[in-house]
Amino acid sequence: MPPRINCSARSSVSRAIQRTTTCQKPTVILLQKSRGTSRCYASASASPMPVGALRLPDNYIPPTQPPSARRPDQRKSQLLRSYTALLRSAPLILFFQHSNLTGVEWAAIRRELRAALAKVPTPAAEPGDSSSTPPVDISSSIELQVLRTRIFNIAFKVVEFFDADAQKSKPNAYTHDLSSTAYEAINQAAAAVDESSVYAQVAPLLVGPVAAIIFPAVSPAHLAAVLSVLAPSPPAFPAPSRKKNPGYYDATAQSGLQKLLLVGGRIEDRVFDHEGVRWVGGIEGGVDSLRAQLVAMLHSAGLGLTTALEGHGKGLWLALEGRRTQLEEEANGGTKKEEATE
Prior knowledge:
Structural class: alpha+beta
Radius of gyration: 38 Å
CATH architecture of the domain at 72-121 and 137-283: 2-Layer Sandwich
Low-confidence stretches: 20-38, 42-46
Number of strands: 7
Largest sheet: 5 strands, antiparallel
Shape: flat
């Protein structure tokens, strides 16, 4: 049997319920007309308020969101910021055009790409060189990303033509990537684009559906592994054999790979076509080997210049010394002849 409630307790509960239903506490509404103004508090009256009485002004700017050149419902701010950060930080980006790839095909391509990158050996540190930083495996940081070409095009303009440091001298000027200052800068640059700029060379590649392979560092070994999977070209970049990697010859993976086309790349703020990308991927020993070859070439050129200058100096000294000896012999011979005639 359920416990019974005393009459006094039951009456007190009913009175409490009546008080809560009859009493209404006034709600507090925060109004802020514009940025930098003081806060105003108002109490809601019992009478119904008209619709739109608490509407924020059109020029209201939230304190947590900087002003932007584009309206929030017309821009993809987070995606644009991620693209600008990507272009500023990634030293190597490969561009591929793709056509009607399904989700299963993208998954198969990413699987084979991860398997090929996992087989790239990590470069060993040079013995006895304590000043150099230890080698880092970048295989897990290389990613395949499908681009929104229109927003990526705008982000490329911002990175190429907008200099935030030069705009900081202006008073009350915002210098972030979504500011009106950046918007005006890219509009002015679009009127007269230099054909030798990086953007002018990359813009023709950003047509249609485009995907990108982003590298956190320039590594010819990892670049060769990517090319051997996504754009094989024997004998320099042969495709993996069926025995070592049978999943590469799966029907789904092959269908997706046939829909990818390498169109170029951006390496260290320079644009390369597919032949230039393959040349970078074919560098033996990586960037360190290329630097060593450059140092050896400069050293040999300097040594040859020093030898040439020394040779010319020695030749001039020998010519002058021979002429001096000849003059001395002529002078000595003349005096001896005068003494003999006397």
